[in-house]
Amino acid sequence: MATVVRMPAALAGVTEGAIQTWMLRPGDTVAAGQPLAEIETEKAVVEYAAEVGGTVARLLVEPGENVAVGAPIAVILGTGEGDDAVAAALAEAGPAVPAPPAADDVVASPPASTAAAPGGRTFASPIVRRLARERGLSLEGVRGSGPDGRIVRRDLEGSEPAASEAAALASAAPPASGSSATGTDVPLTGMRRAIARRLTESKTTVPHFYVTAHCRVDRLLSLRAEVNAVAPRRVSLNDFVLKAVAGALGAVPAANAIWGGDHITRYEGVDLAVAVAVEGGLLTPVLRRVDTMTLTQVAAAVADAAERARAGSLQQHELEGGSFAVSNLGMFGVDEFSAILNPPQSGILAVGAAKERPVVVDGQLAVGTVMTVTLSADHRVIDGAVAAEWMRAFVTLVENPAGILI
Amino acid sequence: MPKQRRLETGVDWVELSTTAADWKAADPALLGTMLAQLHLIRAFEETVLELAAEGLVHGPAHSSIGQEGGAVGSIVGLSTADAVNGSHRGHHQFLAKALTHVSGGTIDPAAPVGPAIQTVLQRTLAEILGLAQGYCRGRGGSMHLQWFEAGALGTNAIVGGGAAMATGNAWAQKRAGTDNITINYFGDGASQIGSILESMNLAATWKIPVCFFIENNHYAVSTSDSEISADTRFSIRGQGFSIPSWRVDGMDPLAVHLAMAAAEKRMRAGDGPAIVEADVYRFFHQNGPYPGSAFGYRTKEEEAAWRARDPLDRVAKEMITLGLIDEPGVAAVRAHAQAAMTAAVGELLEADPDAAGKRRIRPALWPDPSFVDVGIRGDASELAALTVGDPAEHGGGWVETKFVDAVAAVMDRRMSRDDRIVVLGEDVHRLNGGTNGATKGLAKKYGDTTTAGGRVLGTPISENAFFGFAGGLALDGRYRPVVEFMYPDFMWVAADQVFNQVGKARHMFGGDNPVPLVLRTKVAMGSGYGSQHLMDPAGIFATAPGWRIVAPSTAADYVGLMNAALALQDPVLVIEHVDLYQTADRVPEGDLDYILPPGRAAVRRAGSDATVISYLSMVAHCLEAIEQTGMDAELIDLRWLDRASIDWDTIGTSIKKTNAVLIVEQGARGTSYGAWLADELQRRFFDWLDQPIQRVSGGEASPSISRVLERAAIARTEEVVAGLELVRRGMGQSRTDAS
């Protein structure tokens, strides 16, 4: 029996994916477990292994083309089977396979892979129901990757309570008409779609507010020079900032928390996301337990995450979780900016460039090196006073940087 | 014209009847005791029918009224150490044995009821009413009356069901060096059934002191003897099996007694079994208080003719003739018996407050409903003193061995340490260890049926008889039988003994009987023996009560599991597999005495994706399959399979970790083991499951002989791989994780 290979739900919550590279050509023999394609999803590129062995008969999707999860992407033939088997398999697969949904369709009708029956019942395994009960999670909107769309345990892993996707998509505005300039349409990559979807959702559904502070970093810079004179690897200003963020979260635990829909989850340790610009977008790998790391460990972890982010080899789990994020545009000379929260994190610190500026010291005008930071906070979790308290703790650490080393 | 010569069996078959001289010669105390017993039993049975008519006997009440002479005449001369068992119509045999036991063999008809006899009457009636004070705590009722102390092995509701167990009991009596005997009572209706004929053959061949006592009452329910057999003198069976037989008028208790005495002489001398056929008549229908004529299968005239020969009247008349008693004396015996029954009933019944003029069981006398499942098997406390050794944790040296050699070695070790162990089955004594070498060297070392005291007994091909025989041995307790069924499917021809008798023997008779019996058999899927040889019996045994089951996957486990099986006071099925016999394996060095007790599964591979549960040869196939798929599955080797012995803790811990279960077995799906286990697991761990419990098994059909069809019918590594893939699909996003 010829086997129709379908677009897998490669990562939690994805509804579509694109073949980045076919690793086999029609006519190639393939063994079960052998990589068949690299699939690009919103967040990562993963290898997809064939589940059955045989001969690759047909590749149904061009590289780069987005198709819905569950759509046929290839046909694999068993021993001694020919074209009629391909036709038969595709005919059988035919009507049951959903077409790749256009963006507008998604709002109107749920994708076929949602684990909801026409009557509105959500199919979820017993352990999923148990976990949902225990963690207070809503299964609404969670996509089931099990048989017949059943929500299974793995569909919950890394999933956090999130607002509905429809809201994010509804905000997508039509392009302005009447423009005289000409342009070309660039197809969206998975990452671009993810950025669009997640940040739209964040900006429109999470109540942001902003707290800004100017930090004197002269002492920090001289300390960095001293550290770098003896450190096994070079430590950047941003590494100090990360440690200071972790230290401030330790000092103000109320800020180290995320929104859970019907509860707030508070964390003991500090997992920090770091925004890394990559070709075509950005990724936010999460560094685990920054509070327990030394400065040089932070430096090494950031360098490793950034390198692998650019190489496209980050694992999905490295992109999940975290309560706080840091985005630093200082290297571009930006004085200050404010960032959009990256759910589920409830805080993101936008870090500008450290520049010499006029400062007032003891009533006298002087020149000092100043770095402006802006905290974007989720008001559902962090109130203004908490944000202010956190900012004071952060500034204190940055301006008295010996505390960072302790 | 060929030359013909008439052949003779040379086996005695005689009809015995009494003369006036016999009555005169009889001990007056014997006659008085018989008269008293006859009246006690008659009054008892009349009471049972009276209560049945009032609706107070739940279930059938098979009255023995009219047939008392056979039981009393044959039992009155027995000692307590002699034994009887009987059929569904067994009140009279049970009472005769119990009365003889408590009275020491003599009852004065002038004062027939002392406290001990009063107690027997009350407890027997209580048992028939299903009350807690009965001999079997109310579980046995009318058809399962057992009192071991009195030598009453238990009556039996399966026609012919007790013959093989009586034969085993008698073998134990003889092997223990006593001259005790066992009587198995059955009727005309049972005289054609295979278990009776198989047992007669086994008893004659092995010279076992068992009496096959045929109470020929001429009707199997409503079917007359001439409708079911060409010669209605059922003692003719002795001619076919070389068993001397006596035919006697059962309405003459002295004649029965004298025939029994002759039969006893032969049996106690070690010459083998005997058959006694007593011509009797039940005055009532199969059950209940109406005569058979009411149902149209016999005439009132026939009944009147038999009633005129009532055994109670016969003994009374002869005793009056001899001047041993007078009419008022006989009436007084009956009055005593009736008064005793009135007193017994008074202890058990009371006026029904909800129905004027009616009686009811005293509510406090019922068994507690929580007793329902108590004593299906023992509590395994007999293992507490033994040394537990888990090969999975063994830190010492190892000895290389073939699996099958470990099978023979551990049996040799146990037989050398425990004289009670007796091995029996087809060809177990020949072929250098039976058909597979599993009993290698044992017959040479411990003797066979040709050796005095031989302990490795090659049996006739009669699974019903030799398995039931082992059941009788186990219940007797002096010996510990190890039975081999050459192929598991043969259990069907012994199914009554395996499931109805041995499996239920402890629970049905009140929950206390130890039944130390080991049944070995081998799964032979892959050997080409076809549709009637290749089942896996685990599922059938797991769903029948009373049995424990082990299924070792390694030689070292086999040693520990067999040692536990041989120490347990329960029937244990030990499943082997032909694929394992010749495998190169190992056992701990210098130790064949450790046990692997119930509740001890082995985790053969730790993992987090799924819990794979298997046993026997499929454990190795599972390991192979897991490696092939690359799944991180946890593999549990059950070792113990039955619901009382299975390791729920290890299984539960694993399921809570993996949330997915794959049950793997080799055999056909219909009689499979996994169906039972899957049901139990979803009930216990539903909230921990992430997908339906998946299963690997063979197909629906029993495996055929054709090599290709046999392979297609059973599960091996490839089928486990497919099962794992099924689990993987159930895991949802597993595709990317696998890459």
Termini gap of chain A = 66 Å
Helix-residue proportion of chain B: 25-40%
* N-end to C-end Cα span of chain B: 87 Å
| Physical arrangement of strands within the biggest beta sheet of chain B | 1-8-9-5-4-2-3
Helix share of residues of chain A?
Answer: 25-40%
Q: Radius of gyration of chain B from the CA trace?
A: 29 Å
What percentage of amino acids of chain A are in beta strands? Answer: 15-25%
Low-confidence stretches of chain A: 95-114, 161-176
The side-by-side strand order for the widest beta sheet of chain A comes to: 9-18-17-16-12-15
Radius of gyration of chain A: 25 Å
Q: How large is the count of helical segments of chain A?
A: 11
Strand content of chain B: 5-15%
Overview of the molecule:
Chain A has helices at residues 83-93, 103-108, 126-135, 153-156, 165-170, 190-205, 218-230, 237-251, 295-311, 384-399, 402-405, and strands spanning 3-6, 16-22, 29-30, 35-40, 45-49, 54-59, 66-68, 72-77, 208-216, 257-259, 264-266, 272-274, 276-278, 281-283, 286-287, 324-328, 347-361, 364-378. By secondary structure, chain A is an alpha+beta fold. In chain A, strands 9-18-17-16-12-15 form a six-stranded mixed sheet. Chain A has a four-stranded antiparallel sheet with strand order 1-8-6-3, covered by helices on one side. Chain A has a four-stranded antiparallel sheet with strand order 5-4-2-7, with no helix packed on it. In chain A, helix 8 (237-251) packs across helix 10. The radius of gyration of chain A is 25 Å and the shape is elongated. Residues 95-114 and 161-176 of chain A have low confidence and may be disordered. Chain B is of the alpha/beta class and 739 residues long. Helices cover 39% and strands 15% of the residues of chain B. In chain B, strands 1-8-9-5-4-2-3 form a seven-stranded parallel sheet, with helices on both faces. A six-stranded parallel sheet of chain B has the order 14-13-15-16-18-17, with helices on both faces. Chain B starts with 12 loop residues before the first strand and ends with a helix. Mean pLDDT of chain B is 97; it is low at 734-739. The A-B interface holds A 8-12, 33, 35, 46-49, 51, 125-130, 144-147, 150, 152-155, 316 and B 629-630, 659, 686-691, 725, 729-739.
